[in-house]
Design a protein that fits this description.
By secondary structure, the chain is of the alpha/beta class. It has three domains: about 5-95 and about 180-210, Periplasmic binding protein-like II (D-Maltodextrin-Binding Protein, domain 2); about 95-180, D-Maltodextrin-Binding Protein, domain 2; about 215-280, 2-Layer Sandwich (Alpha-Beta Plaits), CATH 3.30.70.120. The chain has helices at about 15-25, 55-60, 70-80, 120-130, 165-170, 195-215, 225-235, 265-270, and strands at about 5-10, 40, 45-50, 65-70, 85-90, 95-105, 115-120, 135-140, 155-160, 170-180, 185-190, 215-225, 240-245, 250-255, 275-280. Bound molecules: adenosine-5'-triphosphate (ATP). The site of adenosine-5'-triphosphate has 16 residues, from helix 3 and strand 9.
Length: about 290
């Protein structure tokens, strides 16, 4: 495996599907069979390692994996209070969540001082408390964190929240957010020259896939006199293409917009006289 690049991803869980999707959309072909922990790409010198996400930061830092996809929350938790050899390369925009304090709905917590806080992210919570000069005890638990206030193990919890539905189902209310997280691509700092070349290709392709998620290709027709006004409304477009139409007073405008197009934007375009406004998805963008 000396000159093959290894990419570590979560074996199963919330990050799995979108990590695999991103790798495949980046043109890295491989097939997974059952419970295999390693998949070899058949078109690039790349191997995919399937591991627990908790293990990913140390695998990358030690050079056992070259690239990896992991939640930023996990990266932070495992990198605090020690030296690591990891570069953050690319925010991937999926698995967004936040790490928040929460307590039972019927309790009012004014200060965390002297309280017992249960969490699966003890380093992150300790650092937060230290920075704020708060003296509280942190109880480390790997799962079912929401249960701990009800069995007397904690006064409050600090856990990952996305929609808030799990907190609500467990009669807990969110009090304060410590950090916002999303999936991130990370890289070992000391890759060989050969591996750096392959890594650069993978990173640029993944960047292309991520860019495309928010990008849209917009086509519309407008009066020639309105071109400048209309181009100003198109969000994140560099230099739209303006094409003459058979009707001499009209042109077609085509633009790659690297920001979302909302209904409000389309309504503004229409108000400026644009017609036949088409907004189309973009699969890949290489800038
Ligand atoms: P492991 O792979 O080590 O078993 P895990 O049990 O923490 O990890 P998941 O519950 O699948 O695995 O969470 C993986 C990641 O998904 C989290 O670290 C976080 O970045 C992200 N995530 C997004 N939303 C949530 C959420 N509501 N709760 C938990 N994790 C979330």
């Amino acid at each position: 495996m000396k000159n093959r690049l290894t990419i570590a991803v979560q074996k199963k869980g919330r990050l799995f599907d979108q990590s695999i999707d991103l790798i495949k959309k980046s043109g890295i072909n491989f097939s997974t069979k059952g419970d295999n922990l390693l998949a070899k790409s058949n078109n690039l010198p790349i191997d995919i390692l399937f591991v627990r996400s908790d293990d990913i930061p140390s695998l990358v830092s030690n050079g056992d994996a070259d690239l990896a996809i992991v939640g930023e929350n996990v990266l932070l938790e495992k990198s605090l209070f020690k030296r690591t050899y990891i570069d953050k390369v690319l925010y991937l925009g999926f698995s967004r969540c936040r790490l928040s304090f929460a307590c039972p709905e019927n309790i009012n917590i004014r200060s965390f001082k002297g309280k017992k806080i249960a969490t699966s992210y003890p380093n992150t919570v300790k650092k937060y408390l230290k920075d704020k000069n708060i003296n509280a005890s942190v109880v480390n638990i790997h799962g079912s964190v929401e249960l701990t206030p009800y069995i007397g193990m904690s006064d409050l919890i600090c856990d990952l929240v996305s929609s808030g539905a799990t907190l609500e189902a467990n009669n807990l209310k969110e009090i304060e957010t410590i950090l916002e997280s999303q999936a991130i691509l990370i890289k070992n700092k000391n890759l060989s020259t050969a591996k750096t070349k392959i890594a650069e290709k993978v990173i640029s392709r993944m960047q292309g896939v991520v860019n495309a998620i928010e990008s849209k290709y917009v086509m519309l027709n407008a009066d020639s006199s309105k071109v400048q006004e209309i181009c100003k409304i198109l969000p994140g477009s560099e230099s739209p293409t303006v094409i003459p139409l058979e009707n001499e007073n009209k042109v077609a405008i085509h633009a790659l917009c690297q920001e979302p197009i909302f209904w409000e934007t389309m309504e503004k375009l229409k108000a400026k006289g644009a017609s036949s406004i088409l907004v189309m998805p973009v699969e890949k963008v290489l800038n």
